[in-house]
Structures are given as C-alpha cells and as structure tokens.
Amino acid sequence: MSENAMIDVRTLSKTYRVHKRAPGLGAALRSVLRRKYEVVKAVEELSFQIADGERVGFLGPNGAGKTTTLKVLAGLLHPTSGSVRVGSYVPHERDPRFLQLITLVMGQKQQLLWDLPPSETYAMNRAIYDIPRAQADETVRTLVELLEIGDLVNKPTRQLSLGERMKCELVAALLHRPRVLFLDEPTIGLDVSMQAKMRDFIRDYNERFGAAVLLTSHYMDDVVALCPRVVVIDHGRLIYDGDLRELARRVRPDKRMTLRLSRPVDRADLEKLGTVVSADAAQAVLSVPHARLSTVVQGALSALPIVDLTIEEAPLEEVMRELFGAREKEARQVSRAHG
Amino acid sequence: MTATAANEIRPRRAGPAALLRRYAGLFRVQLAMSALTAMQYRADFVVKGLIAILWMGVTLVPVLVVFGVRKSVAGWSFPESLVVVAWFTLLRAVLEGAVSPSLTAVVEHVRHGTLDFVLLKPADAQFLVSTAKIEPWHLVDVVGALALFAYAFGKIGRWPSLLNLGTGVAFLGLAIIILYSIWILVVSASFWVIKVDNLSYLFGSLFDAARWPITVFRGALRVVFTFVFPIALLTTYPAMALLGRLDLKTALAALGGGLAFAAIARRVWRRALALYTSASS
Ligand SMILES: Nc1ncnc2c1ncn2[C@@H]1O[C@H](COP(=O)(O)OP(=O)(O)O)[C@@H](O)[C@H]1O
Ligand SMILES: [Mg+2]
Predict the structure, then answer these.
(1) How far apart are CA B235 and CA A285, in angstroms?
(2) Number of folded domains in chain B?
(3) Does any domain span residue B8?
(4) Could you give the angle at the alpha carbon of A48 between the alpha carbons of A46 and A49, nearest 5°?
(5) B7 in a structural domain
(6) What is the CATH number of domain A5-248?
(7) Is A171 exposed, middle or buried (0-12, 13-18, 19+ CB in 10 A)?
(8) Chain B residues 102-121 with a CB less than 8 Å from chain A
(9) What sign results for the dihedral spanned by CA atoms B203, B204, B209, B212?
(10) What are the start and end residues of each CATH 3.30.70 domain in chain A?
C-alpha cells in the first residue's frame, strides 16, 4: 500500500523555534542583542500512509501536533526532518499541480471575502485555479445543492451566520475539485444539525470524487460517522493507527449495557452483573467486560424485570479521555521516578 | 459533474505570452473585486473623495508658505516646485490607492494566519497579495495632480516637449515600482516583527519628504533620500524630466537603480516567505 499511497508520511518531525523573551524592558533590550530560542517539538517521527479515496480521522488532544502535520502536508510548513509525499509531489515545493490537487479547510479561519458575497470569492478562485467557466459553474451548482445553501452565496459574507459561512467556505475550498482534503476542525462551533449536514456532505464528496480525506475534529461524532480508520497522536508521536472500533475495544474492553426496568431493583443485584455506571427506578447502565457479556445478558434476563436491553461500545469521547488520561498519568509517574 | 473529472490535471499553458495573459486576467478579476467592494460603501466613496481633495489642499500649504516669503528655493522657482508637488500628489494617489491597501492587508493576513490561504493557491503569492485591494476614490487625487501640472506649466509658460513627457511617464512607472518595492520590504519585515504599524508610520513620514525637491536637503539627509529611501527618484527626477532639466546619464542610472531595487525587494520577499513556512529553521 505504501507504494501507491496518496499520502505518505515518513518519520516526519517538525520543531518550531520560539523566540524566548523574559518580561521587562531590560530583558527585551538584551534579547534584541542576543536572541534566545526555545525549541518546541510539535511532531516527532510520525509515519502513516493514506490510500486514494480513504477517509481517516486524525485525533489527539490539544497541542498534539495535528494542525502542524496538516500544514506540512499542505505545503505551508517545511518538515524539520523526515519526508512527506502527496500524490507524486513534495508538498513544500508548492508545485501548482500539487496545489490543484489538494485543499486545506481550517474551521477557525476563512478565505471568503468579508464584504462581498461568497459567489465573488468563487469567481476569484475560478480565475486563480484556471477552471473553465462551465466546469466551475457546474461544481458550484452541485456543491450548493448538496449543502442546501441556495441564495446564500449571493448575500455578503458578513451577513451570514457561522454555519452558513462555513458551508460557503467549503464550496470555495472545493471549487477546483481537489482529490485530497485536509480538514482541520471543519465543524467547530456549528450546532448539532449543521454538524450532521457537514458530515453527510464530506462523505458525499468523498464518494463522488474518490477524494482522500484526513479530518481532525473535537466532535467524536464526526469521526465515528466519517472515519473507519483513525490515526491518533499525542505529544507529536503516533500512538495508534488502525480501525476505529478496534481502538475502542482495546482502550475500553468493557461494553456498555443499558437495562430498562419495569420496577425498581436492588443495587446489589445490579452489582452482581457488572460495574454500575448509573441506576434509577426505571433504568440502569452497567459496564461489562467483553468476555463476560453473554453470561451477564443471560443472568440479567432471568433475574431482573427487564423491558428492554441494549449493548453499545463505550462512547468515543470516553475512550479518548481514558486513552490520554492514562498517558498523562504514565508520564507523571515516569517523571516522578526520574525526579 | 462526473467523478472522473475531479481534478484532471489541467495542462499548463506554457510560454511567457500565456503567462502574461493569465496574470492579466487575474489582475482584472482582482480589480473587479475591489470595485465591487468599493461599491458596497458608496457613502464612503464620497466622503473619502472629499477628504482626498482636502489633503491635496493641505499638501500645497507648506509650499505656498515658503514661496510666500522667497522667490526661489534651492534653485527651484515657485511653479517648478509646483511640478514636484503635482508629482507628489500623483504618486501618493497611486501609493494610497493601489499599493498600500493591498500590502496593509498582507500584514493583517500574517497577523491572523490567513496568509495560508494565499500560499495554498496555485498562483504567485506576491502577485496575489499585491493586487488584492485597490481604493478607487484616489482617482480624485489623480485629477487634482493633473490640474496642478496644467496650472504650473501655464505659469512657467513653456510646455514639456514630447520627449520630456515620455521621460516623465517612464519615471512615473519607475517611481511606482520603487514605492511598491519599498512597501514589499516593509511588509517582508512584518514576517519578522509582527507589529509593523511603526514601520508603516516611518514609511509615511519618509514619503512626506518627497514633496520637496531633493536639492533642498543637505549632507546625510540628501544621501539617505537619494540612495536609501530614494525620494529623489520618486519626484525630483521625474519633475526634472518634465521640465527638461534631467540629462540622459542620470536618467539611465536612475532607471537601472530602480529596477535593481525591485529585484532586491523580490528576493527579500521570498526570504520572508521561506521564514514564514520555516524553511530557514
Ligand atoms: N507557529 C508556532 N510557533 C511555535 N509553536 C507552535 C506554533 N504552532 C504550533 N506550535 C506548538 O506546536 C505544538 C503543536 O501544535 P498544533 O499542531 O497546533 O496542535 P493541535 O492542532 O494538535 O492542537 C503545540 O505545542 C503548539 O503550541
Ligand atoms: Mg489544531
């Protein structure tokens, strides 16, 4: 797979040199003469490949190095070491054909011209990307329809809501029909229904154009809905690359069992079955080890007044919290051992 | 839209003519965007036009005051100095109308991190940022400058020859290139020190000096204004060209100097971009 991968990242490291300056005028003056730098390791020895048409979630806590990696992939930053390839291009060379191939959407920033309607930004991007008019018109029509934004593209951007703006932003970013999508928190700040629409849209685009998608999001629902595979990093290092459900199973081997009850039961009876997450008169939620699941289900059905029973994986939010929480604890212990 | 059509690599139309056509097209689109934006603020248009006229008056005041008490200054008569002022007004119109708005926007881009969007585009980044914003009401200044030229030459009683006029226009182009290059240097500096306000203030103050003929300045200032911040090239030489007082050697040297200046600015810009993408660290 690595030979014909669309995205190929090999032992990528990226460090930032941050100009360090102590507070105070004296220190400021001294720092002009002798600059002190501090090195921030944003990404360390990161490797992964993504195939054409694949949708991959890129996860990690704040400051893990996700945005940095995406910027390197989009050619905005030079790698400090290691190599990166997208299609047949080295991103930081910023070959125009490479730039035609990709797009980078940043949920926190926008390219739409503030005072003009989004349609004008589209006209400009059409000229910049050198897209034949008929093709650009058709792309806009299709995307506008998919996103259900109709007349919005003719209203000045400053009059649009955040969600509307983000949708219009997507059209601007996809006008040239890129084959590789780097999406950095594209749903940030959107309400739940808008998030769901964006997800549908991203999947639709991916299926229609066979585009590879690398997506970061704070909303695990986005990832669950869109990405069969996830790449997880922490402190710039890879900690998991593979199937999303497998990750959930590995981090949280327990299943989540919800029982709806016809009458209240003793807590002690519930505790015999598994760890009680919550319980009231009508409903109980238990956490049950995967291996004991069938025994527990049988026991519950025979011993308790059950109306309904559902079994789910632990929510991804919890999986993530547990994953990174555990690593934090580990790190603290290590540093204590060394200190 | 067919799935296979997604991003077929468009064959690049090679050759300088095609390139020129492409960028001319891009320039047209950018102009259209600026005009549309200006139209959104039609009231602004009128107000800013009026302010432009006011400023033109203000520009004249120091010259009127000085020549109220003296017949000539450093070898320049009153109408001759008006030619310099007219140049100054014309250049300021180009600077404030077509150069600084775009380049001020770059500084904002750097500050907000939206320069990334420019760098993601398959077109020359310097071109894109330099043509992003134009403020058309400065046309008022252009008209004012032309009126001033007419008045000054009327007073002198001798109109510039075709050759003088041609040299003058060539110098206008040169002056614009130099101003633009200086601005590019200022903007490049913003990649190192994000707070560029002071720099653009300094730029504004230095540019103000260009309303005087270069011979007014002595010693170190004269050297600075000729070679470091070449206001001599901006207004004095063009005015001399129009007045038929510039010899060919100086003209050619000035032209060469201006172009070299532009080349240096481009190099510095590229260095600054490399720094932005941390290619240099
Ligand atoms: N321009 C920069 N200069 C210095 N440090 C930076 C810069 N951008 C990011 N960092 C640092 O690099 C690390 C990774 O940041 P980032 O890639 O933005 O993480 P994420 O997107 O996963 O939240 C953080 O420690 C952050 O503070
Ligand atoms: Mg980020």
Answers:
(1) 82
(2) 1
(3) no
(4) 150
(5) no
(6) 3.40.50.300
(7) buried
(8) 112-114, 116-117, 119-121
(9) positive
(10) 253-313
Distance (Å) from the C-alpha of residue B9 to the closest C-alpha of chain A? 7
From the CB of residue A22, how many other CB atoms can be counted at a distance below 10 Å? Answer: 10
Nearest CA to ligand 1 atom 1: A16
Is residue B62 domain-resident?
yes
pLDDT tens string, chain B, 281 residues long: the values are 444 444 444 555 568 888 888 999 999 999 999 888 888 777 777 787 788 778 777 877 777 777 666 776 777 777 787 887 888 888 888 888 888 888 888 878 877 888 899 999 999 988 998 888 888 888 888 888 888 888 888 888 878 788 778 888 888 888 888 888 888 887 887 776 655 556 666 666 666 666 666 666 667 776 766 666 667 777 777 777 777 777 778 778 878 888 888 899 899 888 888 877 765 44
Q: Which of the listed residues A16, A18, A46 should we mutate to test ligand 1's pocket, taking the one with most ligand atoms within 8 A of CB? A: A16
Provide the phi-psi class of B219: left if phi over 0, else alpha when psi is between -120 and 50, else beta: left
pLDDT band at A55, cuts 50/70/90?
very high
What's the domain range around B171? Answer: 13-275
Which one is predicted more confidently, B79 or A117? A117
- Examine the pLDDT at A226 and tell me if it is beyond 60: yes
Check residue B95 and report its DSSP letter: I
CA torsion sign for A216, A219, A222, A223 is positive
C-beta separation of A168 from A112 below 8 A: yes
Residue of B nearest to A79 (CA): B279
Tokens of A183: 């999406």
Most confident range, picked from A4-13, A253-262, A315-324, B10-19:
A4-13
Coil, strand or helix: which one is A255? strand
For the domain made up of A253-313, the CATH class stated in words is alpha beta
The H helix count followed by the E strand count for chain A is: 12, 13
Cβ-Cβ contacts under 8 Å for A332 (sequence gap 6 or more)? none
